[in-house]
Design a protein that fits this description.
The chain is mainly α. The chain is built from ten helices and two strands. Helix 1 packs across helix 6 and helix 2 packs across helix 3. The longest helix has about 35 residues. It is globular, with a radius of gyration of 20 Å.
């Protein structure tokens, strides 16, 4: 048993170190962008050695890990909808409450990740490996959003276009660039941004159950 305890303790310590490094990378990338972020600066911010950071690198790997952790709360390819908070929203039976929950979930994630998203897309223009990671991420996102259209329909919303087209409209509306444009750029409040998102989903993606205008 002592060996198992020691092994578990080491694994827990390693996980904590990993998270500290990834969070430090997220902060550096958000503040300084991909090109100006160095592993040495990440190490200094995380309070660990450069060798420790290199063990979790390279920089492009830290960028992807930082994005996943910041956007969804943990590393991995699970979508927001597959995580506990997403499942809680999907389990809401009232259509209006469901849409409010969906909008709030996405708005909060976009606020967290907007700076990192800018670093990610910028890096993809000059680094083929990052570009490949971005392409894979966007393809997973399209799959997730097609599923989101299905969930909207399951809650009584009527898609205003075929499934794939509705998913692309939803992708445009829910992209982090929207938060950057309206909140960071135009000075909108979070409440106003969420209202814009909700209105956009209803007008462009799926009509709510009580809307008979298109019936």
């Amino acid at each position: 048993m002592p060996r198992a305890y020691t092994s578990d303790l080491r694994a827990e310590q390693a996980a904590r170190t990993r998270e500290r490094v990834v969070r430090a990378a997220a902060q550096e990338l958000t503040e300084h962008g991909y090109e100006r972020t160095t592993l040495a600066r990440v190490a200094a911010r995380a309070g660990v050695s450069l060798e420790t950071v290199k063990a979790h690198g390279p920089k492009r790997a830290l960028l992807l890990a930082a994005f996943e952790l910041t956007f969804a709360g943990s590393e991995g390819q699970e979508s927001l909808g597959e995580r506990p908070e997403g499942r809680s929203v999907a389990g809401t039976t009232d259509p209006g409450e469901f849409l409010d929950g969906l909008v709030a979930l996405v708005a909060a994630a976009n606020e967290r990740v907007a700076g990192l998203w800018s670093a990610f897309t910028s890096a993809a223009r000059s680094d083929d490996a990052v570009a490949a990671e971005l392409d894979a991420l966007l393809e997973r996102r399209r799959t997730d959003l097609r599923a989101s259209v299905d969930v909207l329909a399951a809650h009584g919303f009527r898609p205003r276009a075929p499934r794939d087209e509705a998913a692309e409209s939803l992708s445009y509306l829910l992209a982090p660039e929207g938060w950057t444009h309206f909140v960071a750029g135009a000075g909108w409040s979070g409440e106003r941004y969420r209202a814009w998102l909700r209105d956009g989903v209803v007008r462009l993606v799926a009509a709510p159950p009580e809307d008979d205008a298109d019936a």
